[in-house]
Amino acid sequence: MSRLWARFAGLFSSKSFIGVDKTGNKYFSRMEQIDGLGEYLKEKRWVVFRREEDPTSIPVEWICWLNGQRKRAPTPEEMVELEARRERVKLNVALLKKEEEEKKAREGTGRKISIGKVDGPDLTSFVRQFPPDSKGGEPEEASEETDKSRAKEHEPEIVSAEPPEPKTTEPSGSGSSFRPGTWQPPS
C-alpha cells in the first residue's frame, strides 16, 4: 500500500515540465523508482494534450523523445528549423512535379501525372495485336464450338518422348524429370 501511495504522491510532486509544441501539447517527465531494485530510477515521460487526445498532433521529434529515442527534448529553435526544412521539401516536391508535367507535355505524351485517382492502362497497343473480324465487323455469338475451334487453331503441338506424368498433390520425381513450374500446390 505504501508503494501505491508513493507512486500516487509522486505524480504530483516530482513531475517536471519539459516543453510545449506548436499545437500547445505539454510534455513532462519524472524519475520513478524501478520495482524491486531499490535505488535505481527510470525516467517516465508523457504528454498532456491541449484539446482532445489526438496522437497525430504530436510532432515526430517529440514522439522520439517520448519513446526514449532522444535523450534531450527538442528545443524551440530546433523545431522552427525543422518546420522550415519541411516547408522547403514541400516546395521542392511541388516544383519537381510541375517540371515533370512540363516535360511530359513537351514530349507529346497525352498522359498527365495525377496524385490520388490513377488512370487505367492504355489498351490501344494491346487491342491492335488482334486481327479484325473477317465477316464484316459483326461479332460472333459465343459458343463452346467456336471457342474449341479457335483454341485448336492457336494451340501449339507439344511433342514429347516421355510419357505424361500423373498429376499428384505432392511433388515427386528425380532430378532428371524436374520441370520448373509444373507442380502446383493443392488448392
Automatic annotation (TrEMBL):
A family per Pfam: NDUFA12
A GO term from the CC aspect: mitochondrial inner membrane
Biased composition (Polar residues): 169-179
Membrane topology per record: Peripheral membrane protein
Predominant place of localization: mitochondrion
Residues covered by region (Disordered): 97-187
Extent of Basic and acidic residues compositional bias: 97-110, 145-157
Record's keyword terms, sorted: Electron transport, Membrane, Mitochondrion, Mitochondrion inner membrane, Respiratory chain, Transport
InterPro entries membership: NDUFA12 (IPR007763)
UniProt-annotated location(s): Mitochondrion inner membrane
Electron transport recorded as keyword: yes
Any one biological process term the GO annotation gives: response to oxidative stress
Family note: Belongs to the complex I NDUFA12 subunit family.
Annotated function: Accessory subunit of the mitochondrial membrane respiratory chain NADH dehydrogenase (Complex I), that is believed not to be involved in catalysis. Complex I functions in the transfer of electrons from NADH to the respiratory chain. The immediate electron acceptor for the enzyme is believed to be ubiquinone.
PANTHER family assigned to the protein according to its UniProt record, in alphabetical order: NADH DEHYDROGENASE [UBIQUINONE] 1 ALPHA SUBCOMPLEX SUBUNIT 12 (PTHR12910:SF1), NADH-UBIQUINONE OXIDOREDUCTASE SUBUNIT B17.2 (PTHR12910)
Listed name of the protein: NADH dehydrogenase [ubiquinone] 1 alpha subcomplex subunit 12
Organism per entry: Arabidopsis arenosa (Sand rock-cress)
